[in-house]
Design brief:
The protein is of the alpha+beta class. It contains 9 helices and 18 strands. Helix 2 crosses helix 5.
């Protein structure tokens, strides 16, 4: 029987959407790329994060807040179904500052966003003395921090594994190692892969990350997507030295400290560089001097998926009705809304979230 949805892209975004549609009884097939594909889902930092998002677009802050509020139930359900512990912690996260002036300027922006969100933006401002009570290993170069209480982190690889496992349990098909070459519509969608595989479906969702830049124009989308490299370091397993995550470092459940990440405009180069690693190490040691004694065990580079303004795109094609583009760079944070709320948007139900602000119309003409 022909699937109702073909999801192009088997990363966290695509699998979360597939999982949500399968829970609604839809027939779904996921077309996943080759091992050589650029895979942000296997290289990201694992934050479940609200802080600093949407400072100039409160709709994005609200969308992120909806997701983090749903994350606990989402995680618990996946763990119950698959046995995978996603190691979710949601007891807040830090934004560190090297000067009080910089922190005060950011607090003004947070207060303005908080007012636009009706007061729903819970954060505390910690001076150095207060921060040291929360994080005894914090370094002297850190003047203070904003502690946002809606922030947290999880294990992104466990999330990816759990979604893939539960999609199959729910009856979804996942085709691995398939690179989509073309998408055509003639009553239904015909999706052709480089190896000759053909998939036909009533609707299709393009969630192929950087691959959407190539396939999107075929389907009537602008798809203005670019890569940005982020390098990451991992230490040996250590005793508990970090209580909450930040953009500088987070300590995972197994004890290792993940240090990251760079923001580099280097095209499609996902390599690791000495300069990038050295910069990350310096920032981490400035924040937590004790890390200067830790052994590094691995590093990697991965490519983020970014739009011109950094916000997601949710768009149905005018050229191919029934084709949807879903892309973002916060796949982990938004996984819960993609799984639990986005299917209503795809189906056009009365419960569909209003995502018009995230359409491609904001980019003007192609």
């Amino acid at each position: 029987m022909e699937p109702e949805y073909a999801i192009i892209g088997g990363g966290i975004v695509g699998l979360a959407i597939a999982w949500g549609l399968l829970k609604r009884g839809r027939r779904v097939i996921v077309i996943d790329g080759s091992d050589g594909s650029f895979r942000a889902s296997r290289g990201n930092f694992g934050l479940v994060w609200v802080q600093s998002k949407g400072l100039n677009r409160p709709e994005y802050a609200r969308w992120s807040q909806k997701s983090v509020a749903l994350w606990r139930g989402f995680s618990d359900e996946l763990q119950a179904n698959t046995g995978q512990d996603l190691a979710l912690q949601q007891n807040g996260g830090y934004w560190f500052f090297s000067s009080e002036q910089e922190m005060e300027a950011t607090v003004e922006k947070y207060d303005a966003l908080k007012a636009r969100l009706g007061g729903n933006y819970p954060f505390d401002v910690l001076d150095r003395v207060q921060l040291r009570k929360e994080e005894p290993e914090i370094g002297r170069k850190i003047a203070g921090a904003i502690l946002h209480h809606q922030d947290g982190h999880a294990n992104p690889l466990k999330l990816l594994q759990a979604l893939a496992q539960d999609v199959r349990r729910l009856g979804g098909r996942v085709l691995n190692g398939k690179t989509v070459q073309s998408v055509r519509q003639n009553g239904h969608f015909r999706i052709e892969c480089e190896d000759g595989t053909v998939v036909e479906a009533a609707k299709t969702v393009l969630s192929a990350g950087l691959g959407a830049a190539h396939l999107g124009p075929q389907m009537g989308f602008k798809a203005p997507i670019r890569p940005q490299r982020g390098q990451v370091l991992i230490t040996e397993k250590l005793p508990r030295i970090i209580n909450r995550p930040s953009l500088v470092a987070r300590q995972v459940a197994e004890g290792g400290v993940q240090i990251g990440a760079t923001n580099e405009e280097v095209g499609f180069d996902d390599g690791v560089t000495t300069a990038g690693i050295a910069g990350l190490a310096r920032a981490a040691i400035d924040a937590y001097p004790i890390l200067g004694r830790a052994q590094l065990v691995r590093s990697w580079g991965a490519l983020r998926i970014l739009t011109p303004d950094g916000f997601p795109i949710y768009q149905q094609s005018d050229h191919m009705p029934g084709a949807f583009l879903v892309t973002c760079h916060s796949a982990v944070t938004l996984a819960a809304v993609h799984a639990l709320l986005l299917p209503d948007w795809l189906e056009g139900t009365e419960k569909a979230p209003d995502l018009e602000v995230f359409s491609e119309a904001r980019f003007g003409r192609a």
